[in-house]
Amino acid sequence: MQDNQPATDALTTPEEKQYSYLNLGPTHPATHGIFQNVLKMDGEIIMDAEPTVGYIHRAFEKLAERRPFYQITPITDRLNYCSSPINNMGWHMTVEKLLGIEIPKRVQYMRVIIMELARMADHIICNTIIGQDTGATTGFLYLFQMRERIYEIYEEICGARLTTNVGRIGGLERDFSPKCWNLIEKFIVDFPIKFSEFTSLLERNRIFMDRTINCGPISAERALNYSFSGPNLRAAGVDYDVRVMTPYSSYEEFDFVIPVGTNGDTYDRFMVRQEEMWQSLSIIKQAIEKIKKEPAGVYSAKVPEYCLPPKEEVYNDMEALIYHFKIVMGETEIPKGEVYHCVEGGNGELGFYLISDGGRTPFRLQFRRPCFIYYQAYPEMIKGSMLSDAVITMSSMNVIAGELDA
Amino acid sequence: MEGSAQEKTIGILKEKYEDQILHIDTPYDFLTVSLKAEKIIEIIQHLYHHPEGKFQYLTTLCGIHYPDLQQIAVMYQLHSLTTNNRVRLKVFLPEANPVVPTLTPVFSAANWLERETYDFFGVVFEGHPNLKRILNVEDMIIFPMRKEYPLEDQTREDKNDSMFGRD
Amino acid sequence: METATGSTITVAPKPEGIEGAGFFATSLDKVVGLARANSIWPLPFATSCCGIEFMATMASHYDLARFGSERLSFSPRQADLLMVMGTIAKKMGPILRQVYEQMAEPRWVISVGACASSGGIFDTYSVLQGIDRIIPVDVYVPGCPPRPEQIIDGILKIQHLVETESVRRRDSPEYKAMLNKYGME
């Protein structure tokens, strides 16, 4: 063997060095979604990566140009499906901005509760998956019970679990039921217990820390240049949060902390999400207190021409029937205009850039999808790291296929 | 406060590029400036480096098709995280030959956004390192977000179009 | 059967057959069906929202392991059941087909969710209007996305198909003709 095959290192120049190519995806169990990366490998070290996206491109933006405004809510559900209520609310607030509708305070706080629950559900999925990918399945099984509890609350609010389609333009479709308040109260009590178990399993776990610290880091400058947003940007040390910079739905009245990391590595991203879940819990508690001071029973603004009336009114009241018909047929009056509204989604700044030409459908609607923008930094983040680190870097970035490809 | 910040941004633009400005508007309190296409990258760089502007965050970039004007607009939305100001810049390109220089030297984030705009509208970003389709299949020949192309899948036979109000 | 903690464990019911002291005779079909049905190895081909509901199905609350399917086979070559969950875009179509072709017989396909079954709300230029255009499907689960209970129901339907399938079905001319229709050998 030694005689006819010379030792490769001694005789070949770096230019002649042979690399192997590894095709990771589009269906790979470790990628949690359909992402394809062609990796150029030197042994187990990644030299370069070429991501291909678009495997679940569904033409959302074109679809939105053919749908009346209220029918776009179900499309937004399917953007980041781990936190669909935030997308729904973001879209409703965009249209409300266009129409100039003032939302009652109580409804704003109710929306805050729903959105923060959604943020927790989103972060639960992401953080348990990081655990799963580092070999700690237990956390996944523990914390998914709490996610089921959040889904039970959603079901009580709107009837659906995942793709919620919650709310209407102008408010919510109905008041929270007493059972729903009950579930929320119970969740607030139970969540810290389960979450502390999960925290104690991973946060100071030597194996987990060794595995994630300095894995897939990105500097604050590069993160900003790549237009990172959400927990990934905050992990790199930039305290940009849409809830604070451009408050919506009365977030300016709440008292909460924006956690920031230092290195922008997997551990920081994990820890930022962990802390954000505690903050979300605190925001929900504050919102419940605030709602108690508001007049009861208000669940939408008084805009019958945009917000569907309750069913019993439709059957008994002429005006309600007319409005119902007009809304369902998409014949509501929409002003001309151009608005941008952004919300802090589960994984970053989710923006809606809407141009209305006064017709029944948007003239152009662009979704600013945070993970489409920050996923392009992935090759830079994994260059020089091990293959197994690339996997957890991806899961810690919280890239959602539906949002990535729109 | 808001008004003065917007005027400041306009001032920064007018400092060097007054001749490039076509139109200034603030729909829903959001400063929107239409510009000539040639110097758009220079202008963005100016906004990026200006000590009072510091528009160093590219929020989004997209195309808009205006079939009546036979134009395709490219919209850049910048955000200054230091002053918390936002500005929307628009350039209008002819539909038949939409060409604009690339923004990738300034913002790495522009890479995929420009590829997406190329994919949807056929806008050619000159100097882009890897300008090819991103979301659609590579052998696609149309630019699907242009208004003249249909949304629906053309291979379905189970839908009677007249019943759905389509022609 | 009682366990130490007091919970009851039910075993799969035995098929019809002749029983006596020390022996049990039944047809080969039924034995094979019994074994196959209760140890299905699914290959989750999860692309979008339905995949998240599948995660819930696998997790502690709904626990698919109760039906003998906790062992996910991410390699198509060892999988029995292809679970297609989520939108399949036209760009993804050839990959789905390749995965199906890599699976060994006998293989079953379950199409979870409206998108996989018919394209769902996405009647758009980029979405495949139902995976049955490129691969044969055994069970369709409606919903957008279906609840975990519905996915479990789909699995149970597949179990029923597996249990009652003749061991010779895959050699029959009808089956071959069906595959030929999809352009497969």
TrEMBL record, chain A:
Residues 133-405 form the NADH-quinone oxidoreductase subunit D domain. Keywords: Cell membrane, Membrane, NAD, Oxidoreductase, Quinone, Translocase, Transport. It catalyses: a quinone + NADH + 5 H(+)(in) = a quinol + NAD(+) + 4 H(+)(out). NCBIfam families: PRK06075.1 (NF004739). NDH-1 is composed of 14 different subunits. Subunits NuoB, C, D, E, F, and G constitute the peripheral sector of the complex. NDH-1 shuttles electrons from NADH, via FMN and iron-sulfur (Fe-S) centers, to quinones in the respiratory chain. The immediate electron acceptor for the enzyme in this species is believed to be a menaquinone. Couples the redox reaction to proton translocation (for every two electrons transferred, four hydrogen ions are translocated across the cytoplasmic membrane), and thus conserves the redox energy in a proton gradient. NDH-1 shuttles electrons from NADH, via FMN and iron-sulfur (Fe-S) centers, to quinones in the respiratory chain. The immediate electron acceptor for the enzyme in this species is believed to be ubiquinone. Couples the redox reaction to proton translocation (for every two electrons transferred, four hydrogen ions are translocated across the cytoplasmic membrane), and thus conserves the redox energy in a proton gradient. This is NADH-quinone oxidoreductase subunit D. It comes from Dawidia soli. The gene is nuoD.
From TrEMBL, chain B:
GO terms for cellular component: plasma membrane. Keywords: Cell membrane, Membrane, NAD, Oxidoreductase, Quinone, Translocase, Transport. Gene3D superfamilies: NADH:ubiquinone oxidoreductase, 30kDa subunit. This is NADH-quinone oxidoreductase subunit C. NDH-1 is composed of 14 different subunits. Subunits NuoB, C, D, E, F, and G constitute the peripheral sector of the complex. GO terms for molecular function: NADH dehydrogenase (quinone) (non-electrogenic) activity; NADH dehydrogenase (ubiquinone) activity; quinone binding. Signal peptide: none annotated. Residues 34-154 form the NADH:ubiquinone oxidoreductase 30kDa subunit domain. Its EC number is 7.1.1.-. Coiled coil: none annotated. It catalyses: a quinone + NADH + 5 H(+)(in) = a quinol + NAD(+) + 4 H(+)(out). Belongs to the complex I 30 kDa subunit family. It is a peripheral membrane protein. InterPro entries: NADH_DH_suC, NADH_quin_OxRdtase_su_C/D-like, NADH_UbQ_OxRdtase_30kDa_su, NADH_UbQ_OxRdtase_CS. It is found in: Cell membrane. NDH-1 shuttles electrons from NADH, via FMN and iron-sulfur (Fe-S) centers, to quinones in the respiratory chain. The immediate electron acceptor for the enzyme in this species is believed to be a menaquinone. Couples the redox reaction to proton translocation (for every two electrons transferred, four hydrogen ions are translocated across the cytoplasmic membrane), and thus conserves the redox energy in a proton gradient. It holds the Pfam family Complex1_30kDa.
UniProtKB/TrEMBL annotation, chain C:
Pfam families: Oxidored_q6. It is an enzyme of class 7 (translocase). Residues 49-157 form the NADH:ubiquinone oxidoreductase-like 20kDa subunit domain. It comes from Dawidia soli. GO terms for molecular function: 4 iron, 4 sulfur cluster binding; iron ion binding; NADH dehydrogenase (quinone) (non-electrogenic) activity; NADH dehydrogenase (ubiquinone) activity; quinone binding. One of its GO terms (biological process) is aerobic respiration. The gene is nuoB. Belongs to the complex I 20 kDa subunit family. GO terms for cellular component: plasma membrane; respiratory chain complex I. It catalyses: a quinone + NADH + 5 H(+)(in) = a quinol + NAD(+) + 4 H(+)(out). The keyword Acyltransferase does not apply. NDH-1 shuttles electrons from NADH, via FMN and iron-sulfur (Fe-S) centers, to quinones in the respiratory chain. The immediate electron acceptor for the enzyme in this species is believed to be a menaquinone. Couples the redox reaction to proton translocation (for every two electrons transferred, four hydrogen ions are translocated across the cytoplasmic membrane), and thus conserves the redox energy in a proton gradient. Binds 1 [4Fe-4S] cluster. NDH-1 is composed of 14 different subunits. Subunits NuoB, C, D, E, F, and G constitute the peripheral sector of the complex. This is NADH-quinone oxidoreductase subunit B.
